[in-house]
Write a structure and sequence with these properties.
Blueprint lengths: L1 H6 L4 H31 L1 H4 L2 H29 L3 E2 H34 L1 H7 L2 H29 L2 H4 L2 E2 L3 H4 L3 H30 L6 H22 L4 H11 L4 H14 L4 H8 L2 H11 L11
Antiparallel strand pairs: 1-2
Helix pairs in contact: 2-4, 2-15, 4-5, 4-7, 5-6, 5-7, 5-10, 5-11, 10-11, 12-13
Amino acid sequence: MNSTTAVYRDSLSTAIIKNLITVGLSASIIYINSSLVHTFKKHEVFNTNPRYILYIHLVIIDILLLIIFTLLQVLSYIIFTLPVPFCIILLLISIICSLNTPMTLAVMAVECHVAICFPLQHSQICTVKNVTVVITVIWVLSSLTILPDLFTILATESRDFFHSRVFCLRETVFRLPELEKKRTISNIVFLVIVWLTLIYTYFRILFAAQAAAANARKARNTVLLHGFQLLLCMLTYVYDLLLNGLTKLFPKGVLTIRYTISVFVHVLPRLVSPLVYGIRDKAFRRYLRKYLFYSPNANVNKS
């Protein structure tokens, strides 16, 4: 796969068009997500609400992933290969963030479940302190999943490898077959746990008391959106399968195939997060307009 990529190179005009599309899409999404973060920070009604804290955590992860993906793509066209240590840093951040996303979605679904099924206990269970602890645990678990891979290559790779340059992919850095098997197993474990959580919370909300029918319906839709987000996240795990399959069918189109799949897997899914609360949530939408379409005369009272 990598050798094929090395043989075929885009023309200058094609490379410029591809990078303009990627940078344009990523910059637009980052701008929207940054406006969400700014709105969150500016208004206490959001930054003291555990639900919005979890949501903004997800948005920040999306921003980091977009920045890294765009940086890697642009650099791959400009200098093609990167020093191994720099590549490792970028990969570690992106892998940890990618693992954080499904776990955050699972926690957000649980929060919806508690709000609907245990409304009297919600304020005691879903506190800012508890959510902060949960987010810390998510980052720790994600880090513990990838750190063994880092320690393995530090122990097994030669010093020359760390002074070399590579085309920055996970497979070119964490290249031991054992690490590939470990990644597959850990991905399956994470996704099974998250899917079971989403399914359980969805059906619990589905059968919630009729007295909370309106809120339950909104919560069910939110959990379904989380499920859709998770499906998009899972595209990352079938990236190699799609790439290899399409490359075998169209071997001379490997660069176009790689680029198209990368945009669909890494960029477009980041559009979903702003929709979940940024547009659907009336309170958030009211404040968000001020920063997306800024006017010096705009005046929105802080909550």
